[in-house]
Amino acid sequence: MKKKMTLTESLTISSMLFGLFFGAGNLIFPAYLGQAAGRHVWLALLGFLITGVGMPLLAIAALGITKSTGLFDLSSRVGKKFALFFTCLLYLSIGPFFAIPRCFTVPFETGISSLLPGTLNKQLGLFLFTLIFFALMLFFSLRPGRIMDWIGKFLTPMFLIVFFTIMITALLHPTGSASGKALGAYAKSPLLTGVLAGYNTLDVLAGLAFGIIVVSSIQAFGVTEPDQIAKETVKTGILTSILMAIIYGITSLAGATSRPLGIADNGGTILANIAHHYFPGFGAILFALMIFIACLKTAIGLITACAETFNGLFPKYSYNKWAIFFSVFALAVANIGLDAIISISTPFLMLLYPLAISLIIMALTGNFCHFEKSDCQIITAVTFICALGDFFKALPSQPAFLVKIYSNLPLYRDGLGWLVPFLIAYVILAIRRLIKSNKSK
């Protein structure tokens, strides 16, 4: 029996996990944050790191510390029915419903479309590109045993080479300074705006979803002792988070110093402008390659995680059947366009994130607070009911009556209407359990 992994093995899994996490959104959102935050870039980045790095790390740690085999196992602390509901909803959201289609459309909208002939119909171009992306994604995902090689050893290093080529050049020869006036919400509350921007990376949800891949990869290196698997899982998460934080910092600073190249309304345009400026002639190709690799490796990981999870929950259908079904479904959704995908996905993220965060916190502190299943159910119910308010508010067509009711919640205007009720329920039940525990000694 092998007791622990070598440093090389840990770095390989960390590279794979980073590759799974780091899609195009992880580049686009910090680039926009940097340019919009201006002189407040470091404060906004701190907020972004809380939800974009800190919470995903806690998600991985929660799986490791509780020795859970995956999200269903972790969420079963609340109840089997909730575990099935939450696991299916989360994987479908970061899988074929929203995140995977976004992986299809982001590289096309931000990089590939500018390289196509002007005579080609854009919708036709999107369809042809998504077919190619679909074929590559399905080819890799139907070979889940090699995902560590595909992503950890090849795609992630390729991405990092292109990324650092562009970004280090931009930082060494900046066109401006990170001292400009903050724009929009970043002018009033840069820290909170950064926190909410971190939601868009989907990484808290991905941290829970990718746990099954991390655990199986660690076991593939011969680690079978549950305690050691837990330690290796946490160590892998820490190494991955450090790399993600460094790249977020570089991308945000590059965005903050890029204002002379033009103020843009999205990070894709900002990064494209940077690539075009520093690499005239082939900057567009370099940028398109970077975005394409970033999205492909994330999409492969998402399909693999979704198919493995649903095969475990519903073994009647094989892993390959689930992978093919999810890939075809994502292909169809991708062709409705990026703007439509984002507008539909936002309300669901506002509902899922609070549930994920509350689950992670309960898992990490459950043993100390001596939570029982009934406590977890109460906390989850309070979180879900209050998070519905943020869900209703984010809908394209808001139900005015319900929004008015929920508007009385603290922080509701900031998209965090669930937070204070969750904290109140959590603290009351934790104190109650600690008092009972001390009395029984």
UniProtKB/TrEMBL annotation:
UniProt-listed Pfam families: Branch_AA_trans (PF05525)
GO molecular function, one term: L-isoleucine transmembrane transporter activity
Biological process terms in GO annotation: isoleucine transport; L-leucine transport
Localisation per UniProt entry: Cell membrane
Ranges annotated as spanning the membrane: 12-34, 40-61, 82-104, 124-142, 154-173, 204-224, 236-257, 277-310, 322-342, 348-369, 376-395, 415-435
InterPro entries attached to this UniProt entry: Brnchd-chn_aa_trnsp_Livcs
Keywords linked to the UniProt accession: Amino-acid transport, Cell membrane, Membrane, Transmembrane, Transmembrane helix, Transport
GO CC, one annotated term: plasma membrane
Topology within the bilayer: Multi-pass membrane protein
Family: Belongs to the branched chain amino acid transporter family.
Role summary: Component of the transport system for branched-chain amino acids.
Protein name: Branched-chain amino acid transport system carrier protein
Organism expressing this protein natively: Lactobacillus equicursoris DSM 19284 = JCM 14600 = CIP 110162
